[in-house]
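pinning this so it doesn't scroll away 📌
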Amino acid sequence: MRLGLNVGYWGLGITSEQQLELVQAAEDAGFDSVWAAEAYGSDAATVLAWLAAQTSRIRIGSAIFQMPARSPAMAAMTAATLDQLSGGRMIIGIGSSGPQVAEGWHGQRFAKQLQRTREYVDIVRKALARERLVYEGEQYTLPLPDGPGKALKLMIGPVQERIPIYVAAIGPNNMQLTGEIADGWIPIFFSPEHVGESRELLEEGARRGGRTLDGSFDIAPTVNVSIDDDVDRARDQMRPFIALYVGGMGSRERNFYNSLVQRYGFEDAAKEIQDLYLEGKKDEAAAAVPAELIDTITLVGPRDKIRDRLAVYRDAGVGTLIVSPVSFDPEERTRMVRELAELS
């Protein structure tokens, strides 16, 4: 099982220099990859270019490029450029984001995401292969008909023969699609105890695409980490983040993270967290997150507990564990990166 480092959103909590030191420590410790996120602050591509310029081996991944923020052709251009700048270290992670960001920030309708994702990946692959972009889909048509557009091909090629494309997916249908079309899956709030259900969905999609999920398909969950001899203190570090997603990322009728936690068997807790959060009681919502849920979807506690839990992820078939150390202290984050490398 490889280790990846998720640096999250740039500029929040620690300085750029401190963030770079963390990434360089991860590279020195043997981490396989570093991943940057984007929401409506820092963008992932700029961060990855900056990191690639100051590292030499560690692979760089987008977790995730927001599909509503870029045309498929732009995603291919960005990926090819980053692959060249990094000497062939790029991994493309894409996702549909959510309706609030897609429609409120990017002005893109959040609809027909399954078909949009399928076509998006098709076009990115076609562009990276430097084929002329002629595409007729339900969501994308290239070139546009009855206009001056020409069927163009990418002016530069990536270093890698095939840049891997990972998809961030939560719902069952999206997971099936990921198994069908992607090289990897980036889940959030991943539970290794429920990997059987997830693998069934991925394999069903793979069969639909006429392939099997052999060793080339990567399950790469993003997992928050707090290594601390005081397990309750470590759990408390996770509560606000989990409450934000389970309670506030979406409406009462449409919250993908809340639905996921319910599928894990935490129906009552999910409802309580959401009710409290949407009433503006964020502290109470965080306090309502069960310890069992925290232990299920994060890595928390002393070294021995973390070591045992890492083995559970490995046995679940995780190929890349993308970790996000949780601490306001930059030195603590670096310590956790080094300890994770030792424990794995």
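📌 and the second one:
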Amino acid sequence: MAGVCVLTGGRSLERAVSLRSASRVERALLGLGHATDTIDMGPDLTSRLRAGGYDAAFICAHGPGGEDGTVQELCEMLGLPYTGAGVSASARCFDKALLKDELRRAGIATPPWLSFAGPALAQLGAGEALPDVAERLGLPLIVKPARMGSALGIGVARDEGELRTAVLSALAYDERVVVERFREGARDLAVGVLDAGDGPRTLPVVEAIPQGRQLYDFDARYTPGLTEFAAPADLDRELAEEAGRIALDAYRTMGVRGFGRVDLILSEEGIEVIDLPTIPGLTETSLLPMAAEAAGIGFDRLVATILASALCEDPA
């Protein structure tokens, strides 16, 4: 059995979700017989990791600091194996603009978009170009902070006034914004990917169906009752296979390892990738555990498989 530190918390706005994921992972690790410490990431993290003598870090820290390559860099410096994607893949997937650039170059479908930074608005008067953005991409648009998870700070703009408001709201979460074509009536799909010792494989497609809401936003993700889930999603076999193929292509293109989740939308335009969380939530309402369960993989086995990928061991 291994000595495992579960890294969680930190100062991200996704702190509460991180703590919920970590609590569930800690219980699973203890049930599997591992010696486990949960560490709330802060200024003493390096000293605690150096003194702990851990065999691996199980990263449950969502958002900036945990999912963007920062804590992964620290683990690399200390020579500590860790779960999930490496430094470069974490950073590139966390920034939606970089992610979409790489997907486009690889020929993987993603909705049309533009991105720009707050200083362009403040220093270069780029706010005057927002009508041009609306004309080029076509309304309605969805506006997102480029580097934030859990659908925090997103909004839909149906006219130029709403676009300006949505951009300012998104800039409260990150200095860079992604403005993307909004697919009316699109279905929200997710494909979990798991490395189980013989290369990455996809889990069944899960669909999130918000109740009385137009977006699968933060509240819909983490408030029981606001979203119904279909695991597996109600798709014909060809569509399900296509979603899995696209997800695996995106996962490999971005150089992700260990595990991850590829978020997709299905609309009249087909299946498109919109996000690739490299540390997907592991809470009771999170999509990756639902997908694993649909594949006959219980939560403890899911955690064991993720840990084994960090230790380069056979998950069995």
